[in-house]
Specification:
- The strands form 2 sheets. The chain has a 6-stranded mixed sheet with strand order 2-10-9-4-5-6, with no helix packed on it. Strands 1-3-8-7 form a 4-stranded antiparallel sheet, with no helix packed on it.
- It is 0% helix and 43% strand.
- It is mostly beta strands and 127 residues long.
């Protein structure tokens, strides 16, 4: 059974940092590109960052490029997202998932037809 558990979110002041973690089970992430998505109230689902199965390639949304860094540890079956210089626009629920199949990004993120979604982790940036 595929499971994804995100953690590490919280309340942070603008300019602060957080590190999110995603623990996967029920499949080997080494077989998949992985990604982080985020969903803010009243906004469309956004693809925040993606990383290839071998970590050789990363891709970031324009809104986070230069501030966020995605990484993975295939031996631990985990994916991480280091978020620096956070601003209020980063406030959202963050989810991780494998890029199971090419799909159109849907809103909310959790309606995309993937085998499972975690509960997400809330990131709130506020002064």
């Amino acid at each position: 059974q595929v499971q994804l558990v995100e953690s590490g979110g919280g309340l942070v002041h603008p300019g602060g940092s957080l590190r999110l973690s995603c623990a996967a089970s029920g499949f080997r992430i080494s077989s998949y590109d992985m990604g982080w998505y985020r969903q803010a109230p009243g906004k469309e689902c956004e693809v925040v960052a993606q990383i290839s199965a071998d970590s050789a390639h990363t891709k970031y949304g324009s809104m986070v490029k230069g501030r966020f860094a995605i990484s993975r540890d295939n031996t631990k079956n985990t994916v991480s997202l280091q978020m620096n210089n956070l601003n209020t626009d980063d406030t959202a629920v963050y989810y991780c998932n494998a890029n199971w199949t090419p799909t159109v990004i849907q809103t909310p993120c959790t309606t995309m037809p993937y085998p499972a979604w975690g509960q997400g982790t809330q990131v709130t940036v506020s002064s």
